[in-house]
Write a structure and sequence with these properties.
Layout: E1 2-6, E2 9-13, H1 27-36, H2 43-57, H3 64-68, H4 75-81, H5 86-94
Antiparallel strand pairs: 1-2
Helix pairs in contact: 1-5, 2-5
Length: about 100
């Protein structure tokens, strides 16, 4: 674990760069993490991010297939929104722990 300044806030992050405390997350932090990953966030991105946060709070297991069945986006749209690692990058931007299904 290390400390990283994101959007002017010092945050504890894991070795992989995921927030250790998801309660510290806000949209400005999400935007800065997304920028580091080369992603410009849109309202559709935030729909996905908020869905992931709700499911994580409910302690539900996150999978790409599950997000695709959410009614928010299908799997193809998820890959368009978060290329090169849809669940991995969306989770990091959402400020939630790295899903167990991600390597």
């Amino acid at each position: 674990m290390s400390v990283k300044t994101i959007a002017g806030v010092e945050l504890k992050v894991s070795v992989d760069g995921y927030l250790e405390d998801m309660t510290q997350w806000n949209e400005e932090i999400a935007k800065e993490i997304a920028t580091e990953l080369g992603i410009e966030l849109t309202p559709k991105h935030f729909e996905v991010l908020n869905y992931l946060r709700v499911k994580t709070i409910a302690k539900e297991n996150l999978t790409i297939r599950g997000v695709g069945k959410s009614g928010i986006v299908d799997i193809k749209e998820l890959y368009v929104l978060f290329p090169k690692g849809p669940l991995k990058f969306s989770s990091k931007i959402a400020g939630i722990p790295k899903p167990t299904s991600c390597i």
